[in-house]
Amino acid sequence: MKRPSPRQLALFGALGLSLAATLWVSRDDEADTAAVARPRHAISATPTPASAMADWPGPAASARADWPALDPQARAAWGETPLAPPPAQAEAAPPPPSAPPFPYQFVGRMTDSRPRAVLNNAQRSAVVAAGDVVDGQWRVDAIEAGGLRLTYLPLGLAQFVSFARPSA
Fold first, then answer.
1. Within-domain flag for 85
2. What is the count of structural domains for the chain?
3. Interior CA angle at 30 toward 24 and 33, to 5°?
4. Residue 76 belongs to a domain
5. What digits encode the pLDDT tens for the residues 82-139?
6. Distance from first CA to last CA of the chain, Å, rounded?
7. pLDDT tens for residues 17-76?
8. Which of 124, 164, 129 is nearest to 150 (CA)?
9. Where is this region: Disordered (predicted)?
10. pTM for this predicted structure
């Protein structure tokens, strides 16, 4: 039979020490738990008489505070009393629909044969002229010195996108 290596001997030693420590700690816990669970003066070999059981749970229970009173909504949740319907509130009209922000930034203008605008966002850049449709949702109505006049096609709402200023 092959002799264990020094590494294996060290591992077996560590295993033995950890098992011994675990046994020692568990015996300590059992002794502490037993002492807390059953005080020595309360241990008796005779069964408890029925008259003593009538006092159960004992004086500690009588010192407890009463449960707090439940509000009507909590009582209704348990089916005790029906809740009155909430007072009817006048329904406010929903706000009118608005166009989402234009997904591009107006970077610049080109004035060759006809005015065109350079647009940019994180995904792509585009060069558009008046009348072009961007992403199937935005129509370029006019290219001006200060920005673009656009129409959000799904709602027919006009919007102005100003020329991007370089950050200082």
1. no
2. 2
3. 140
4. no
5. 556 667 776 778 888 888 888 888 888 888 888 898 888 889 899 999 999 999 999 9
6. 81
7. 999 999 888 886 555 555 555 555 555 555 555 555 555 555 555 666 777 877 777 777
8. 129
9. 37-103
10. 0.43
CATH number at residue 152: 2.30.30
Q: 123 φ, ψ to 5°?
A: -90, -35
At which residue do the structure tokens 């004992």 appear?
58
| Count of C-beta atoms within a 10 Å radius of residue 140 | 20
DSSP string for 41-97: GG--SSPPPHHHHTTTT-HHHHTSPPPPPPPHHHHHHTTSSPPPPPPP-PPPPPPPP
Q: Can you tell me the distance from the alpha carbon of 151 to that of 153, in angstroms, rounded to the nearest whole number?
A: 6
Angle ∠(158,163,165) on CA atoms, nearest 5 = 145
26: containing domain: 7-35
